[in-house]
Design brief:
This protein is 17% helix and 39% strand. It is an alpha+beta fold. A twelve-stranded antiparallel sheet has the order 1-2-3-4-5-6-7-8-9-10-11-12, with helices on one face. The protein is globular, with a radius of gyration of 13 Å.
Length: 135
Amino acid sequence: MRLRVCMLLMTALVGMTTVNAQTLRGSNGQQIGRVDSDGTIRDANGRSIGKYENNGTVRGSNGQSVGKIESNGTFRGSNGQSIGRIDNDGTVRGSNGQTIGKVERDGTIRDASGRSIGKAQGADPKRAAASFFFY
């Protein structure tokens, strides 16, 4: 279940560059939710489970900020502390510098072991990497 929600949010965050609502699919091709044009992320049942704002703020289902994605690739928690980063090559690192995933140029998203856990087209790697930290 956690991986499924993670995939939904990851896919949702990458899809935020579009203006219209978007159907979200997991790595098996099955529909797992959608993203509304205002950035609201919804699960397969239509429930709001988060939101991504244009200024980089990431919010949970309760509307509270859970963190922020900075333009330089640094991820900060709600307390302002750095919790990780994404390198220019798409490698996602935790606050200790250890690799926790990767977002490849073709949109493939991999976990720490290198296994593909999903794919997004037209992906903004920073938004895709947000799921490793916030959800």
